[in-house]
Amino acid sequence: MAGTPSISKSWQARLQASGDAATAALVASLDVDVALWKYDIVGSIAHAQMLGERGILLKEEFAAIKAGLFAVADDLQAGRLAMPVELEDIHMVIEKALIERTGDAGKKLHTGRSRNDQVATDLRLWARDATDDLSDLIRALQGAFVALAAENAKLVVPAYTHLQRAQPILAAHALLAYVEMLQRDRDRLADARGRINVCPLGSGAVAGTSLPLARERTAELLGFADITRNSIDATSDRDFLAELLFTCSLLAVHLSRWAEDWILYSTTEFGMLELADAYCTSSSMMPQKKNADTLELIRAKSARAIADLVGMLTLLKGLPLAYNRDLQDDKRFAFATVDAMKQALAVAAGLVASTTFRSERIAADIDKGFLDATSLAEYLVSKNVPFPVH
Amino acid sequence: MAGTPSISKSWQARLQASGDAATAALVASLDVDVALWKYDIVGSIAHAQMLGERGILLKEEFAAIKAGLFAVADDLQAGRLAMPVELEDIHMVIEKALIERTGDAGKKLHTGRSRNDQVATDLRLWARDATDDLSDLIRALQGAFVALAAENAKLVVPAYTHLQRAQPILAAHALLAYVEMLQRDRDRLADARGRINVCPLGSGAVAGTSLPLARERTAELLGFADITRNSIDATSDRDFLAELLFTCSLLAVHLSRWAEDWILYSTTEFGMLELADAYCTSSSMMPQKKNADTLELIRAKSARAIADLVGMLTLLKGLPLAYNRDLQDDKRFAFATVDAMKQALAVAAGLVASTTFRSERIAADIDKGFLDATSLAEYLVSKNVPFPVH
Amino acid sequence: MAGTPSISKSWQARLQASGDAATAALVASLDVDVALWKYDIVGSIAHAQMLGERGILLKEEFAAIKAGLFAVADDLQAGRLAMPVELEDIHMVIEKALIERTGDAGKKLHTGRSRNDQVATDLRLWARDATDDLSDLIRALQGAFVALAAENAKLVVPAYTHLQRAQPILAAHALLAYVEMLQRDRDRLADARGRINVCPLGSGAVAGTSLPLARERTAELLGFADITRNSIDATSDRDFLAELLFTCSLLAVHLSRWAEDWILYSTTEFGMLELADAYCTSSSMMPQKKNADTLELIRAKSARAIADLVGMLTLLKGLPLAYNRDLQDDKRFAFATVDAMKQALAVAAGLVASTTFRSERIAADIDKGFLDATSLAEYLVSKNVPFPVH
Amino acid sequence: MAGTPSISKSWQARLQASGDAATAALVASLDVDVALWKYDIVGSIAHAQMLGERGILLKEEFAAIKAGLFAVADDLQAGRLAMPVELEDIHMVIEKALIERTGDAGKKLHTGRSRNDQVATDLRLWARDATDDLSDLIRALQGAFVALAAENAKLVVPAYTHLQRAQPILAAHALLAYVEMLQRDRDRLADARGRINVCPLGSGAVAGTSLPLARERTAELLGFADITRNSIDATSDRDFLAELLFTCSLLAVHLSRWAEDWILYSTTEFGMLELADAYCTSSSMMPQKKNADTLELIRAKSARAIADLVGMLTLLKGLPLAYNRDLQDDKRFAFATVDAMKQALAVAAGLVASTTFRSERIAADIDKGFLDATSLAEYLVSKNVPFPVH
């Protein structure tokens, strides 16, 4: 058994008998998990380095593995590596390429590691980056709102409740409401990051390993703040993806609320905002129209995020301990939403930065609807007139 | 304006100014809607033919358009057509290629048609095929269950409630329970098909057209059973996709229930089923194991389907009349689930066909748990002993 | 065993030992399934009549049971029956009350029936009524829209796409778009009703019964069109509730789209609709406002329906055959949404009937935005000028 | 206006004209928000005290209000307060009762407060308690798992992956996996609590108030750690409820995974666990069975929680700023899930505490399936034999 590369024992071999293309497609996740390749290589190098430091690998074995993985990374970066569906996932693609380059050394990379803790580690590295990227993009969007508020420091607009004009407020007051929402999203991302940033390597397939690994060392090499404590939990835990998806869902809801507002404010009827042409489209059938398509597409991402959150939670519902293959589909939910949110945030920041208020029309309309009734009522209260208000 | 191809007036042109890659990606759906290309070409040919029959297009214009669309189809089939993201969607790709081949004739294809009714038509043609494909695949799976029941006509197995052994039953009785569930899925697909198979062409962007189209004729050419009655509704109606996704969700739930059963029956502890190797995998770390990975992946598709159903409904929630760009994302939900269900059904049929019952062990275990208590109780009842049962 | 009422063998007895209030609350569904009482009594009478006709019950036993059930019904109608949580569900409440009134005869009611097929029958009877009630309420709402369209037969309003003014249309055209959506809801309800209206009685707990029941007769007495064919499926099938919830979800989405439109049209800015005071509220803090609260609450019901649909599907996901206690929670999802939809529909019909268009303002605003550009473009087309349109 | 109690200007009055029972039911939330009464009274006392300290209320007015609210609380506690649906919500019930007891003083309670910031405050006080209660209940359940692990310190059981026996592990290892999951739930609750515990009082209906409130003082009196910063956001922010529901959803998923495991382990086939009778039920039709009903009902709560999370997010999707009446339904989602989770946790702790392992059968079965292949493989690796493992 020892000399046989694991890939020849895998699914792939069994499938040759059945020749079942549908099965091959069902079990493969390569179309999605290719996005993990950098994390897989980084994680493998750290694991091999620790094995080398512990004497489980020889120095020259580690050197060969490291060089081999760098070469594989170059090939992946350049798009030179074949990715037949039979290899199922990016981990198998990389392992096969490594063994082709390094022989027996490459075969030893999986010493003390299982696919289960390997995949969990890759996912956590990916998710950690995702929280950082999202947090930066949110910060940029917050900046755009703050800048727009500063540019319109004295502009008075109606505040709405029930979509009815309620009271006159500063435009900045409304714009900063979005900044508050987004700040909570960043805070939630930071909290989620803390639970993501824990290293499951060493958990094996389910019950750990009897080899004398140095788990803290691998974690340190990968920048993890801690190691997981229970191998059964660690190999099947996808809470961190669900939490990331929830955080994205609320973020998406915030963006959808803002998009809804600005779609309304851009109508002929409200007439409060002028969006830059680059974020709108028109129809040659109706050339007078200027449609806020990007805002509508951003609003739509709330459906994406909520859907993927539901998918992830439903996937986990009722799964027995520990790893079950159902978990393979976790990435389809997590990657789709994170990609969509990154896209939406990047567009949103540009859109906010290029939007102008139609100050003259706003000023002309501001008195419609007796907006200062509240102020009058409060004045009466200050004179100690009983005045219960709802 | 007349001589200007529409694509030069589009988003694409605006984007050149902004050079915003994120926006280009957000507004594009080409990665997904490329799957519609056949439907788009068929729909366009039927529309052009009707225009020709009504004298709105000249005979030679129709001939040029038809020939041009066939040439474009050949190129698409062969993968020869460039698909830059700037063209946004497959409709633009095809339109541009057609105009390059036919000039002014191609420009006239959109006479009396808007992107809104065109896309709605393509989606309905796609969804009609989806229901037919799914129905056929379900029928094949039903056949596999019936065949397995016939092969094990006399096998007695435990029936379970609450996962506790309840009464001895024929294995066929349990297998045919799945056939019943699947039959309801086929019935629902048939009902859904009736609501899908209605032609929205002629609805324009929202309010129809003043041109003398022959809507029934186009519908007839495309095999639609009827035409839609209200253009405002027709251009923004995606009920048929939601209904298809719901039908897939219940189908997926049925498959997940079956998968759960068979995963259990394949355990060492239950020991009732032997799955074919082609549908299982093992681990080199634990070579004695034979994991029912395909069943787990099939079970996981219920999360996919439910997620996409939620996505579609959430997308539609609260959208004002009529078309809003949010609807562009409808395909992401619909296509992912239909593809997943096709895959799951194809694998399921093969898996059922290759599974065997472990009759000897089943027989050896059948007396565990006093399974015939009910029969005894009912015997007492037949003797007129009062015996309330729950 | 024969003389012992089943209720003394139940959970209740076990709980006396544990005295665990939380457990009692968890296992009880009486707060919800009390709504089934009429269906439970009707179902029991039909079952007893069949048993009597088949000679499984003596004539006088059937008479006693029937009279007893009528007496229990009177008590339930009058609110005279105690409903301690220890009895868990309405079926136990009714059974206990019947046995108190009829003794041994009452104990025989459950001959050839299990709680599993009894509950499935009650649910189907309830769901059948729900489809009928909903269909009637939808029809009334359709009538209100048609009447409003007739009252405003010549009113021209803007059609919107992307919430931008697109083309002038008749108000009736827009109002009838909702009628189309609602008609599809009614069609779906009719299809769902066909799958609901099938009788599971005789399926026992899971594997039927050895008693010579006349299943078609019971079905006939209860107005069912058919009987279920597989007892394992029939006792655990909740597809019909999921389908009802989906139908309600799309209905709720339609109502939310309409509510969104009319909330917008009622703003100061759009100024197109005047809602009756009875459907609005104002704030004493801002007395000038007139908020469309009922429309907002109707819009909110889409969240209710989608949530309950997700709940039902998630409940079923991965459940093994056959009945599992998880199914007890099915009613919490189904009843909440059906009640909410009935409420929303009833309010909607009254609201539509009492709404007026603000014709003068609409007319004054109709020219804003060059709404007739399309007509001009189409005129050019009719002159054979190439004019591709999107 | 000053002397008129606000309730006479409300919906209630309008409804008298319409007599529309459906509308009354739609707009009312009293059936649900009655659970907020303690928080409403506490919040009002703090608000009144601050008003008194600032001189906005006279000392005797504050004294009258405080005494009146205590009296109302006594009546509510004793169930003496009538709650007609016309009063719509618990806030109106309490306000009316207060004014009846205190006249003009009571009418002044709402000085500087709107229903919008009042309700947001009540919800946050409720949610803060909910996180504390849930965290305590989780801790108790963790304790039960730890105690069971300690009782079975040397018991060896199979670890499963893909529901196939993988390796022998200590039972404690598996039990502590659940403790890890639950600890993450507690951590998430703690993070959520931080975002809940912020006081929105002073935000008014949307734009704050011109009265010289001391917002930090009210917050301090109510134990809030901070005040909200933007009134438009604060009056329509329900993120904290969505976050609480997500936290409950993951908790529910953890409980469902555990319940699934233990349902399996309690089967005749697995035979590893003996549940206490108090947590099981049997069927008189099949008296030999012992069904794990409570575990099934606990598993079912994951559907409840996920559904309510979806409901909350869907409710918020696309809502414009600021308060919209849709938000009234937030409580239906939040309360149902928190109640269900409390119930499930309480039952779970008792169930775990009363469960025993069937050690003899487990020991007899432990060798089935060659569980120590991994250990052998790892031994080979320690001899430096290349051995890639998955």
Summarize the structure.
By secondary structure, chain A is mainly alpha-helical. Chain A has helices spanning 11-18, 21-27, 30-33, 37-53, 59-77, 90-102, 104-107, 115-151, 171-196, 215-221, 231-236, 239-265, 293-316, 330-353, 359-365, 373-382, and strands spanning 156-161, 164-170, 198-199, 226-227, 273-274, 356-357.
SSE layout:
Four copies of one chain form a homotetramer.
Chain A: H1 11-18, H2 21-27, H3 30-33, H4 37-53, H5 59-77, H6 90-102, H7 104-107, H8 115-151, E1 156-161, E2 164-170, H9 171-196, E3 198-199, H10 215-221, E4 226-227, H11 231-236, H12 239-265, E5 273-274, H13 293-316, H14 330-353, E6 356-357, H15 359-365, H16 373-382
Parallel strand pairs in A: 3-4
Antiparallel strand pairs in A: 1-2, 5-6
Helix pairs in contact in A: 4-5, 4-8, 4-10, 5-6, 8-9, 8-14, 9-12, 12-13, 12-14, 13-14
Structural features, described:
The structure is a homotetramer of 390-residue chains. Chain A has a two-stranded antiparallel ribbon. The model of chain A is unreliable at 1-9 and 14-19 (pLDDT under 50). The radius of gyration of chain A is 27 Å and the shape is elongated. In chain A, helix 4 packs across helix 8 (115-151). The termini of chain A are far apart. Chain A has 390 residues and is mainly alpha-helical. Chain A is 62% helix and 5% strand. Chains B and C meet through strand 1, strand 2, helix 9, helix 11 and helix 12 of B and strand 1, strand 2, helix 9, helix 11 and helix 12 of C.
What is the helix/strand order of chain A? HHHHHHHHEEHEHEHHEHHEHH
Ends apart, CA distance between termini of chain A: 77 Å
- Approximate helicity band of chain A: 55-70%
Oligomeric grouping of the chains: homotetramer
Number of strands of chain A: 6
Point out poorly predicted stretches of chain A.
1-9, 14-19
Strand content of chain A: 5-15%
Largest sheet of chain A: 2 strands, antiparallel
Gyration radius of chain A, rounded: 27 Å
Helix tally of chain A equals 16
Global morphology of chain A? elongated
Largest interface: B-C, 99 and 99 residues
Mean pLDDT value of chain A: 91
Side by side, the strands of the main sheet of chain A go: 1-2
